[in-house]
Structures are given as C-alpha cells and as structure tokens.
Amino acid sequence: MYGRRFCRRFRQRVCRRIAPRYIGVRFFRPRDHAMKPVTIDMLRAHLLAASLSAMGTEVLALLALLVLPVCQQDFSSTSFQFLALALIASGVVVMRKFAHTAFDLAIQSHHATPAGRPVLIEADCPRRWFVVLHLRFTGRPFVLAGH
Questions:
Q1: Which residues pair with 120 in a beta bridge?
Q2: What pLDDT, on the 0 to 100 scale, is given for residue 96?
Q3: For residue 144, what is the enclosing H or E element?
C-alpha cells in the first residue's frame, strides 16, 4: 500500500519538475476511436503510389542485374536499401505531381468541375485515373459522372 502511493507521488513530482510550468502534465488513456474514412482513403492512395514505385524500382533492379555487371550481393547492401527507399519516396512525390497536374488540366478543360462540395468528374476525362488519384491524395470528395 505504501509503495504504490509513494510511486504515484514520486512520478507526479518528477513529471511536474521536468515539464515546464505552463504545461499541465496529465496522464491520458489511449483513444479507442478508429480512423476517419477520409484518412484511410488518403493512406490507401499513398500506399498505392508507394507500391507502384516499389514495383518500378524492382524492374530497374532486374534490368541492372541483366545488363550491368552487378553481383547479387550488392542488392543486400545498406546503400542499395537507402537508394531503393529514396526511389520509392521520390516515385510517390512524382506521382503526386502528375496527379495534381492532371487535375489542373481537367479543371481547365472542364472535364472536372467542382460542383459544390464534391468534385464532379466527367466520364470522357482523358486523365480520369490521375484526377481521382489526386482527389484521394488530398482527401476531397468526388463524384464520377456516367455516360
């Protein structure tokens, strides 16, 4: 009994001394709420872009293995792993830029019109996949128009 009280008081005193005076130190329980559907959709879009970039990186590694005089041990090195990670991250950034450009072009050519809150995307939009990908990246709602 005395040990628990002592530990609690000790922890409170140490936390109050370590934390600045203007920050109230409280102990919170973890949240039991699930993620919002918009956040899940945005994460899925980024994971899709990352997986496509990883597939492109694998194709480049296969071509390097076939064409260049590279041994297989080079692919397990730390420098190659960092290079692969950089290629995947840059692939996601490039895909975001392409999707944003496609969305801007669709707005200019009236294939996508922000009709109120959700963006309306026409069925004959030539870059429809990239426009939808941009809207999923940004978490904006959209409606696909049929024929």
A1: 113, 143
A2: 95
A3: strand 142-144
Domain boundaries in the chain? 34-144
Q: Which residues fall within 8 angstroms of residue 114, CB to CB, at 6 or more apart?
A: 107, 120
Residue spans of beta strands (DSSP E) within 51-132: 112-114, 119-121
Name the residue among 134, 137, 89 with its Cα closest to residue 107: 134
The neighbour count for residue 102, using CB atoms within 10 Å, is 22
In this prediction, residue 85 carries a pLDDT of 93
Give 25's contacts (C-beta < 8 A, 6+ positions apart).
12, 15, 16, 19
Distance of CA 78 to the CA centre of its chain: 24
Strand partners, 114: 119
* Eight-class DSSP state of 122: -
The SS3 assignment for 119 reads strand
Q: Which residues of 79-101 are buried (b: 16+ CB within 10 A; e: fewer)?
A: eeeeebeebbeebbeebbeebbe
Q: Quick check: 41 and 137 in contact, CB under 8 A? A: no
Indicate the pTM of the whole model: 0.69
Sequence letter at residue 23: I
